[in-house]
Design goal:
Elements: H1 2-7, H2 14-32, H3 37-53, H4 73-86, H5 92-100
Helix pairs in contact: 3-4
Length: 101
């Protein structure tokens, strides 16, 4: 992941960048399905760093960061941080509806 993140800015072709984004998102999302909150927290911390540099990687996967009722507080806080960084004009209504609940 670190190698890809370092090489991503050097890619010139938009199709190559989009292909990498498509390959990066599923493994990151899979880590969130872990039942142990400690693993989720570590995954979310790493996802937050990735999203700070390249939010477009996970822009279409914002629903995976919605909080669940049984998430520990520290996992919820990380999910909220990622959601804030991924929120844009096209998905703001969905995010606000989720936060309202």
């Amino acid at each position: 992941m670190q190698v890809i993140m370092r090489l991503l800015p050097r890619l010139k072709s938009k199709t190559q960048v989009q292909a990498l984004h498509a390959k990066l998102a599923p493994p990151l999302i899979t880590l969130l399905s872990e039942t142990r909150p400690e693993i989720q927290y570590v995954a979310l911390r790493n996802i937050a760093l990735i999203v700070q540099r390249s939010p477009e990687i996970l822009a279409g996967a914002i629903r995976h960061f919605f909080c669940k009722y049984n998430d520990p507080v520290y996992v919820k806080m990380e999910k909220l941080e990622v959601m804030v960084n991924l929120t844009n004009a096209s998905n703001i209504k969905n995010v606000l509806m989720e936060l309202k609940e």
